[in-house]
Fold:
Amino acid sequence: MNPTVESLDFAERWLGDGMAVLRPAYSVYQVAVDMTNATALLTEHRRSGVQATATHLLIRAAGRALAANPALHQIVAGVRRHRPSRVDIGLSVSGETIVAPVLVVEGADTKSIPEIAAVTTTGAPEARQADARMLRVLRSWGWVLPFGWMRRALL
Structure:
């Protein structure tokens, strides 16, 4: 089988340049968690008709943890620190490119598991549709800035 080489379309070029401009996070923290009680809670929710998953439990737990520890709930951008008044959790949704669409669960610390499940059920398709619209625009108009250095300077 012969390898093939194809050019990236303008949407993929824009996304790649966007990733080059952003500085990646340089830390990772990993914790092993006993999910026995969480599994029992999920079973309870499913019996009552709520299609809850471990992701929904983790969104709720992260929201509550950030609300309970406001010193940890901050965004540092450049030389500024922002401490949001509300806990919103961004959830990556599978998409068609390397940059995943993001669904934002607003006020995640105040929502119940059924509410979070409902938000993700309705919001994931909407996030994918918004991502598809953005890709169509980039594919149609991406040629306006054909060179990577120009796109990176704009971004």
Observations:
- The longest strand covers residues 89-92.
